[in-house]
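Input sequence (261 aa), recorded before submission:
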Amino acid sequence: MEKEDVLVTIVTPSYNQGQFIEDTIKSVLNQTYKNIQYIVVDGASKDNTMEVVERYRDKIDIVISEPDKGQTDAINKGFKLAKGELVGWINSDDMLYPYCVEEIVKLYKQNPDGAIYYGTTIDKIDAKNNHIEYWSNKIESRDRLLKKNYDVSQPGSFYRKDILEKVDYLDESIYYCMDLDLFLKLLQYGKIYSLDDKPLAKYRRWEETKSKNGRTKFIKNIRERLYLHGAKCYNKSILTTYYWQIRFVLTDIVKAIFRIK
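Predicted structure, token format:
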């Protein structure tokens, strides 16, 4: 067991995720590493989310339930209340493996000069918790994100609180790719370290996933952020956004013509 002298803060933003949030909460409370501050920030859900949260309130350090300006605003509320040396968020339809925080703290102690600590492999699951596939993503540097591959692995990723404060948390003007923007900001001040041998988190892919429902806007949002952080029009990362945008548009046209759902 890793010596538990490092406090880690985990934030769960939520809105109308009553069907999944219990799995998320349990995945945090069942961590093998126990020195965790857990914060749940709900945007005044209209479903049974808070009924579920109330069952675990005595085990959650801070619970907020009030109207907000969206996911990014909710996460920032939690980040600003965080007391941990390391801080991360897990969405209310995703989960952490029980050993996630223990492995992250170990990685942090071995590499204290980092800004980001994450797992390269994510376990993708469906709405019924069935395994879909393992997705791996090795991020070596900020330069790679800007010029080659903009994909980031947010579930199970954690950030040094002092650097998170320095970059002024998440940009609340961003609706889709706030995680990419945060990675690009943090990597100006520290390195990125990864655990490569096993997944740290489960990412739920289902019909109501935000990035799935707004995919064309999502890809445009990515391109805007890449340009803002210094990417050039000829970089592979930028060209990839145009490829996916064209593909999404053509797919939607075909579906509309043949009335495919």
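Checked by second reader. The first strand starts at residue 8 and ends at 14.
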